[in-house]
């Protein structure tokens, strides 16, 4: 974008992938426009012009110049990594609208693989999740349009639409011999960011489904409610970040600040440009919007020392990995579950002169101790598999390292940094007839949506609660 001597707005996006009917969450930063340095690659540009001319002259049908140029830009960006993309004016407008409110969609986190659209995770309590779309599914057709060759932006546009309208997805799943054809009804996608429950006296449960604009204040309101319900200080808190695809960077910093002392380092970023380098601490200037008062002031001081367990899995990505990594590095929380997604890069939405924009990977982020999450993820302190998943299903989990053209980890290979300090094997599940395990469902209220926090039926949650109780015993002995 050729605008000299001006300040531009750059939208910094942290998420696991493109959102097909999810909520784009962005933080705004003012950064200076940068001049392009170095000579232009004239030989390569001549080749480009030659190919352009051949297509215009010899292709079987006439092609508009605009289409050729736009497709060339899309190819240039999509070839970099799974998260960089070109946004034409319409797509750029839709993205901005998606950050501001409601729109019709399906509720999918998606990435690119081998020219197809791969599901990273369905967002909970959305049409996609209710229809049975699963992590690792490959979307091969949207209505009658084959997906191969479509950019992620184009695929998202086809899946979004007027609430109440229908869209048919043809899905390839490794465990199925034939493609699955699912017809979904688009709905208003407005996920609840924070849910909470008192699991039993003295032990609270907090779930963050996605890091949104009001996540920090909603989290604090949830803690206040739990304290009132308990009528006493809590002895332990479980923070559930399973299948949380990420969201706002300042939301991650704000959530970390709830449990960390002021000015502790939460995350830092490294990129080629000076303005891609940030050190973000648990300080109000790094997570509050202008004019807001600090919501942390209403919480008792002991919240920063109450025993804390964070639940994670392969769907824990980006902003939720920042929180997990920061609290793990500062020895503030015990991380329990399975290896996280490994989304350790920052995408910036840069506006263009044509009212469009580009989504460009501009930096990697690092935990306070200097660990890069990229393509590795966070290794839990205590590894506990989901007892409801078979080993084959667990192996189908998609992670950043599985995405085509993913960025490498600057600290070395893409293997987990270390082994969990402890591994708890789930019990062997007995086969039961279909429907025989659903007898009590009708008797249970479900105020928290599809992930009802029940330690009796959720093995990972039950073990997390046991860990908190053991910590209490050790504290008393100490």
UniProtKB/TrEMBL annotation:
The keyword Cell wall biogenesis/degradation does not apply. The keyword Protease applies. Residues 1-32 form the signal peptide. Residues 435-444 have a biased composition (Basic and acidic residues). CDD domains: cpPDZ_CPP-like, Peptidase_S41_CPP. Residues 92-160 form the PDZ domain. InterPro entries: ClpP/crotonase-like_dom_sf, CtpA/B_N, PDZ, PDZ_6, PDZ_sf, Peptidase_S41A, Tail-specific_protease. Keywords: Hydrolase, Protease, Serine protease, Signal. NCBIfam families: prc (TIGR00225). PANTHER family: CARBOXY-TERMINAL PROCESSING PROTEASE CTPA, TAIL-SPECIFIC PROTEASE. This is S41 family peptidase. It comes from Crenobacter oryzisoli.
């Amino acid at each position: 974008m050729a605008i000299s001597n001006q300040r531009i707005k750059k939208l910094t996006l942290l998420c696991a992938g493109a959102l097909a009917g999810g909520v784009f969450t962005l933080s705004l930063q003012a950064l200076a426009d940068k001049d392009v340095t170095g000579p232009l690659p004239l030989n390569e540009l001549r080749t480009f012009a030659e190919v352009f001319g051949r297509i215009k002259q010899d292709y079987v049908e006439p092609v508009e110049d605009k289409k050729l140029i736009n497709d060339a830009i899309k190819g240039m960006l999509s070839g970099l990594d799974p998260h960089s993309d070109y946004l034409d004016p319409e797509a750029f407008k839709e993205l901005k609208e998606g950050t501001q409110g409601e729109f019709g969609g399906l509720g999918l986190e998606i990435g690119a693989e081998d020219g197809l659209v791969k599901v990273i995770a369905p967002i909970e309590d959305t049409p996609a999740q209710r229809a049975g779309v699963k992590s690792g599914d490959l979307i091969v057709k949207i209505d009658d349009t084959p997906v191969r060759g479509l950019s992620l932006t184009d695929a998202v546009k086809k899946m979004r639409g007027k609430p109440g309208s229908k869209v048919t997805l043809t899905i390839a799943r490794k465990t199925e011999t034939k493609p699955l054809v699912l017809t979904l009804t688009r709905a208003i996608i407005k996920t609840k960011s924070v849910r909470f429950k008192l699991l039993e006296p003295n032990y609270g449960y907090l779930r963050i489904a996605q890091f949104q604009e009001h996540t920090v204040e909603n989290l604090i309101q949830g803690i206040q409610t739990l304290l009132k319900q308990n009528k006493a200080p809590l002895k332990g808190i479980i923070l559930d970040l399973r299948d949380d695809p990420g969201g706002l960077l300042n939301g991650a910093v704000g959530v970390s600040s709830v449990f960390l002392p002021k000015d502790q380092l939460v995350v830092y970023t490294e990129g080629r440009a000076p303005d891609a380098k940030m050190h973000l601490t648990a300080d109000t200037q790094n997570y509050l919007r202008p004019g807001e008062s600090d919501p942390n002031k209403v919480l008792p001081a002991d919240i920063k020392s109450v025993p804390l367990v964070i639940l994670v899995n392969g769907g824990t990505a980006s902003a939720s990995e920042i929180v997990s990594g920061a609290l793990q590095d500062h020895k503030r929380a015990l991380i329990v579950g399975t290896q996280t997604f490994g989304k350790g890069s920052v995408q910036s939405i840069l506006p263009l002169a044509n009212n469009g924009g580009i989504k460009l990977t501009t930096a990697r982020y690092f935990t306070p101790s200097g660990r890069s999450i990229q393509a590795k993820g966070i290794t839990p302190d205590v590894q506990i598999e989901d007892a409801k998943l078979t080993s084959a299903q667990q192996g189908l989990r998609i992670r950043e390292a599985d995405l085509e053209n993913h960025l490498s980890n600057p600290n070395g290979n893409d293997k987990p940094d270390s082994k969990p300090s402890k591994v708890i094997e789930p019990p062997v599940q007995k086969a039961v007839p279909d429907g025989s395990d659903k007898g009590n469902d009708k008797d249970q209220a479900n105020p928290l949506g599809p992930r009802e926090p029940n330690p009796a039926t959720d093995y990972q949650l039950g073990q997390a609660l046991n860990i908190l109780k053991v910590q209490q015993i050790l504290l008393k002995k100490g």
